[in-house]
């Protein structure tokens, strides 16, 4: 546990069949103790890792494509990360059948220094059809993506995700550490376009923070929130909250649900950030200041002065965005980028 971290707020009164909409949309993290404790998967995992694997294999799709298994040597201590000079990574990825991963995790379960093994963000309906008929959460009008994460004692560096996330621990224990989005300057985030798993990560080793190398991390710790999650517990991680996930047992399974509070046709804002870095960041200071005002006028603080003087039918991208306008604008941008 990081020094200075405070507990994540908790509730133990939430019914998995009727999670309040206000809670899901609150923008604040919360641990929901025992939310999925009655799932058959959780009950099997409480018996043993072998029972949990046997239960998962009842849903295994025999003709499924292989999963992507991330594997690292014992020396990395479960921390999937970069190599020493950040030119590559300290792990490899293999395409293997899910059943092979499950058997391998059981094989190494009693070893003191096993290789680190992790299957991340694997779509449940593709690889474990039927699982959600017995282990699922109703979300009303929301249609979240449901994924399963399987591994041993691993550490996933602090990162952000655009969707909201309800992460349910169904086997093993996990420690989750969260930071508000505004802690970005204090987390020493690595490259944006060369990442271990698609999202930029904090370069700080949470197991042994080097405050001489990363002094501002001490301030981040004062804003950190953490919790130890048991099988059956869940944590709501709002959009863009930094989260570090650590599997504490030899066999861990997590089921998570991702959804966005925006239409499916909206692109990720990360694309806009990358384009802004390419086109705006290195302008002369005076020009960059002009574009700061332009972005504020059109994007971050639009008001009556933005487009009220233009007839409704002529506003085009200045009108409220919808799927058709987004598709047309995306085609135009691709044409310009590929010139």
From TrEMBL:
SUPFAM superfamilies from the UniProt entry: Clavaminate synthase-like
A Pfam family recorded for this sequence: Cupin_8
InterPro entries per record: Cupin_8, JmjC_dom
Location of the JmjC domain: 117-274
Protein name: Cupin-like domain-containing protein
Organism: Lysobacter soli
